[in-house]
């Protein structure tokens, strides 16, 4: 019998949700034309503090789900199982997670993407234009290659969002614990530190990638970085910017490939498959400006990558 990979044991539901993108489905980022021009000019993608995202409960919802599940009978079963395999692990895991809880909530920087269906190539998604289009919105359709990469050299992570209420999460958490128990013979080969690392990674994902079901139609993926947890890399730097009158720290992700480090698909020419210009007053003006910006960023044949949505939407 083939031994299942650890990702499949520890994160089965996330792997299931990631299936379409891992199989080649594209992702898209709805944003303002101004933000895209900043990306193309600097060749850096901006990640903003999760506390400043549209949904004020972005991180708190997932944390509340985890806390609720941890205090159920399933949570107690998990602690017993952990300590049977790795003595004193449950207390050590609690200390580790509690020590990073503040950073997870307040020091995590995120960019939000959305799964992009083939039939959205022409018009985009109306609900996303309404939410993120503004007066001159664009949809940046991304090649998914880098999102299926297993490299950790960039010090950022990406994952699909799961949409669950606290009760739904608790029910699933019970199944998750049972799945771990059923794979005891495989997992007992892990040493203490590796097992702790896997458990902490799962808990962090639960906090960052469990979202209220009311947002389900967004079909969101997240790219995230917590400096105190992920450390630094040649792709990541932070700085202070004033955005909308508020001085704030942002994290920038360098759009640069490095074949030697197995980071491929980040450079603009390979990452940006197409740009859809959203409903706006001057689509042709924006079209020609995008042609120039994409060309300057090293994107080949930019004229073939730009289209305009014809949805009759008023700003």
Quick synopsis:
The protein is an alpha+beta fold and 315 residues long.
What report would you give on this structure?
With about 325 residues, the chain is of the alpha+beta class. About 45% of the residues lie in helices and about 20% in strands. The protein has 13 helices and 12 strands. It has helices at about 5-10, 10-20, 35-40, 60-70, 75-85, 90-105, 125-130, 165-180, 185, 190-210, 225-230, 270, 285-295; strands at about 25-30, 45-50, 110-115, 135-140, 155-160, 160-165, 210, 220-225, 235-245, 245-255, 270-275, 305-310. Strands 1, 2, 3, 4, 5, 8, 9, 10, 11 and 12 form a 10-stranded mixed beta sheet that branches. A two-stranded parallel sheet has the order 6-7. Strand 11 (about 270-275), helix 13 and strand 12 form a beta-alpha-beta unit. The longest helix is centred in the N-terminal third of the chain and has 18 residues, at about 90-105. The protein is elongated and about 65 Å long. The model has no long low-confidence stretch (mean pLDDT about 95).
